[in-house]
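User: Quick sanity check before I run a bigger batch. Here is a single chain. Can you write out its predicted 3D structure?
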Amino acid sequence: MKLIYAGSVKNLYLADDPTQLWFEYTDDYSVFDWGKMPDQISGKGEALAGLADWFFRTLADEAQWKRFGLTGPPIRHHLIAREANRIRVTRVDVPKIPTINVGGGLVYDYGYDRLETQLIPLEVIFRFGVPKGSSLLSRKNWYPFPIEEGAEFEQPLIEFSTKLESKDRFLPYQEAAQIAQGGAATLNLVHAATDSVAKFLKALFEVHGLKLWDGKLEWALIQGELALVDSIGPDELRVGLGNAVFSKQFLRDYYVGSEWYQAVHDAKRLAKERGKTDWIRIVRDELNVAPSPLSKPYLEAAEALYADFHSILVSNQPSNRFIEALALL
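Assistant: Done. Predicted structure follows.
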């Protein structure tokens, strides 16, 4: 296999068939868009590959939709096969979004050519409530209803943010439609499919006694038809069990207030002021700060997070290892 992209937590290899790729999930993790952090989380890669395989196949199973009495159609996806910590997927083109410095500010030009098989460059976020750490808390004024920690919604609230920019931006629907190309019609397809997936996942987790708070999805066009791509797992979902929340939010919390955390925010501001995208270089070379390793209890909790998520869903074997580890932090 030929490596064509080495990411912070996932590597992409070209398969024997050039229309396909291998996604290799590593044991590395990332927070705050930094890239690879100092530690590795043992077993994370294989657990995520297993979860991606399970979620995609479950969402495509018509019997599962009927099981929950849902009317939405089974979801098309890019998964082909899985081996250990890798999944083989249909290859989709990722549009190249050029940047222009306009008046000292960085502007992204979304006038890319639309292809029949191509990633839609949007993060699509659905929310059934406002758990601790939700970014909704910083955007209370966006919505005409109360946004308070612990609030729950009967219907999923769906938001859009940028996918390929140096720092994600939440978008009004009008701008999201322009970025997606195809206009409002494409955005409407994405919105409707996300609404269906969100409701399906909520029902699925309820069977296991779990509460789905929110999640993020990525979509692409494959031969002109909408398909779910990338991954689904604890890095994309926030799921509650009692007072515990299955997500990597506790890893973000570990760094909040640290010198490195402050440097990240300062560097992103400086990069924006300069009309640049290289805020990570500013942290490393100008501010001379790097993230510290996790403490042993946090690393053990991280290992338990991915193992438990896989055990509960894929193996159907309840496990409290993560909850017990989280209580010790």
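The chain has one domain: 2-256+293-323.

User: Great, the batch can go ahead then.
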